[in-house]
Amino acid sequence: MEKERIFELLDGFKIETPSWGYSDTGTRFGKFHQAAAASTIKEKLADAGTVNRYTGCCPTVAVHVLWDFSVGVDATATAKLAEQFGVRIGSINPNLFQDQLYKFGSACSPEERARQHANRHVIDSINIGKAVGSKLLSIWMADGTNYPGQDDIGARKQRMHGALRQWHDAMPAGMTMLVEYKPFEPAFYHTDIADWGMAYLYAQAAGPNAKVLVDTGHHYQAQNIEQIVAWLLDEEMLGGFHFNDRKYADDDLTMGSIDPYAVFRIFHEIRNAAELHGRDVSQIAYMVDQSHNLKPKIEAMIQTVMMAQELYAKACLVDRKKLLDAQSRMDIVDGESCLRNAFFTDVRPWLVEWRKKHGLDGDPMAVYRASGYEAKVGREREEARAARGAQAGNSYA
Ligand code: PSV
Ligand code: MN
Fold first, then answer.
1. Residue 396 above 60 pLDDT?
2. Using CA positions, which residue lies closest to atom 6 of ligand 1?
3. Closest Cα to atom 8, ligand 1: which residue?
4. How far is the CA of 2 from the centre of ligand 2 (A)?
5. Gap from CA of 381 to ligand 2 centroid (Å)
6. Which residues line ligand 1 (CB under 6 A)?
7. How many CB atoms lie under 10 A from the CB of residue 146?
């Protein structure tokens, strides 16, 4: 593929970073505080703006309603704050797992009070989305049970159907609901949206503006995620991604740190769907969902974004004409070679060129490090926290 075409595809490849990735989160066992960790929405937006400034491809920030918006705060003021840092508010993530009322679930809870509470929170979240001009409502629920017999699985399914339909209908025109799945954790016997098939059925029943969100860390070991992606693309039900990597379960490691070839194969299916099957892939929301406990947060995010661009560019390089030819001849070795050749091509010099073309430095990590941002905000934030008597981080993680 021509370099110019790859550059065009990179221009269209935007990655949303999560507000919670900039604060002290990351494990339920222990948080290792970082002086530069953000604790206010202003600090999170400043960090997201910094990542965007050096990478040039992260114009939006995902927000978690409970962690980022306080009661009575005008959401449009937050949108304006984002603008000051050169970013926009992206997906709105209601929090349906932290409140004490959610002990037995949110939308699926047998307790009406919990269901109503969830409903009010999602409607509030939709209103925040409207106020800030967000196009995405990301739904992830921790709903499930820990023991056989704890609750009626079928009845819970019905409750979930009802809630999602109601929320779907409450969204303004142009907003898309993303339904995320996860096989386990925090529920350890059954999870109400455990896999892509359940998410698909729920999204389909909710209405035309609901699609599936694939969080790469939310699968069992050995699951073929790119097949799920290919299927969802073919069904026009792929809404977006939460990128992260994992070795064991939902580990929140930086994307591609464990298995970059797996990420490449996901991107390959996306380019295949676009180029060979005529699918519109322009609306796929590429989002990062990582909470860094050990790596410096902004560096981890820059590293993630650079990795995503690199793997995406490699996937764009697959010679699909050759691939089709190999497949028509049933030449397995040649077919696989098409993927391997692209994967092993060093595209980093092109990315340097692409960045320079956009007025960016070719090495975002090096210039970010040289800027002294981390040390500077580390000092300022420690002082501000001391003055408030507060600690960094979201309250759950
Ligand atoms: C749950 O594990 C999840 O992947 C959901 O997307 C949440 O919104 C996010 O992590 C942050 O807790
Ligand atoms: Mn996620």
1. no
2. 140
3. 140
4. 34
5. 27
6. 20, 93, 140, 180, 182, 215, 242, 250, 289
7. 12
Q: How many Å apart are CA 27 and CA 368, to the nearest integer?
A: 26
Structure tokens at 287: 């989002």
How many C-beta atoms lie closer than 10 Å to residue 250's C-beta?
A: 17
pLDDT in tens, 24-49: 986 778 889 999 999 999 999 999 99
Query: Which residue lies with its CA nearest to atom 11 of ligand 1?
Result: 289
Protein residue with its CA nearest to atom 9 in ligand 1: 289
Residue nearest to atom 7 of ligand 1 (CA): 140
More confident residue, 317 or 31: 317
H/E stretch holding 154 reads helix 153-170
Per residue in 342-377, pLDDT tens? 999 999 999 999 999 999 999 999 999 999 999 999
Cα distances (angstroms) measured from residue 56 to each of 12, 51, 148: 11, 8, 49
Q: What is the pLDDT of residue 136?
A: 98
Query: What percent of the chain has a predicted confidence (pLDDT) above 90?
Result: 93
Instruction: Report which ligand 1 atom has the smallest distance to the Cα of 180.
Output: 6
354: three-class secondary structure by DSSP: helix
User: What is the position in ligand 1's atom list of the atom closest to the CA of 64?
Assistant: 8
CB 216 within 8 A of CB 246: yes
Residue with the two structure tokens 């937006």: 45
**Amino acid, single-letter form, for residue 367:** V
Of all ligands present, the nearest one to the C-alpha of 395 is 1
The amino acid occupying position 298 is I
The third-level CATH classification (topology) of the domain covering 3-396 is TIM Barrel (3.20.20)
Distance CA 122, CA 172 (A): 13
The CA distance from 331 to 382, in Å, is 60
DSSP 383: H
Long-range contacts of 277-285 (CB under 8 A, 24+ apart): 277/233, 277/234, 279/233, 279/234, 279/236, 280/236, 281/233, 282/12, 283/176, 284/238, 284/239, 284/240, 284/241, 285/16, 285/90, 285/91, 285/136, 285/178, 285/213, 285/239, 285/240, 285/241
- 218 C-alpha to ligand 2 centroid (Å): 8
Distance in Å, CA 242 to ligand 1 centroid? 9
